[in-house]
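Review form for a predicted model. The reviewer records the input and the model, then writes brief findings.
Reviewer: anonymous (R2)
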Amino acid sequence: MKLSILLNNEPLDTEVEPDVPLLWFLRDRLGLTGSKYGCGKALCGACTVHVDGAAVRSCVTPVASVQGKSISTIEWVSKNQPEFVEAWQDLNVAQCGFCQPGQIMSASALLAQNSNPSDDEIDRAMSGNICRCGTYMRIRSAIHRVAEGRR
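Model under review:
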C-alpha cells in the first residue's frame, strides 16, 4: 500500500505492507530505533509513540491504521521537548533506560492534555508503561517537574 503520513513533522510517502506493525516500520525501514520492542502485545509501553497526539503502542498498530495521520517518535520529542530529557536526567529516573522512551512519550501525551496532573492522574496515564527497574516515583517526580516548568 502507499502510506502517506506526517512523521515527526515531515511528510512521508512510501510503499509498505499494510499489516506491518508501526514499530517495525519505524525501526527497520526508517532507522528510528528509539521506540523499543518489549512485549509485542501492548502490555509494557516500551514501543509508545504519538498518533495524532495520543500515546499508542506501536508494536500492535498496523501501519495501515495510521494512513494520513501525524506520528511523533521519541526522536522528535527529545529534540523538541528537551524538558523531558532534562527532568529525567536531573532526577536520575533511568536505571537501565530501556523503557524510558515509552515513559517519556506517555508523559508527553499526558501533559499535552493535562498541564497540571495530580499523582493519581499521572499514575493512571502511566499505568500502561512498565519499568522493570521500578523508578515509578522518580518518573512521577519528573512529570511534575516538567509540568511545573511549563507553567
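Findings: The beta strands are 2-7, 10-15, 48-51, 54-57, 70-72.
Further findings: The mean pLDDT is 97.
Recommendation: see findings above.
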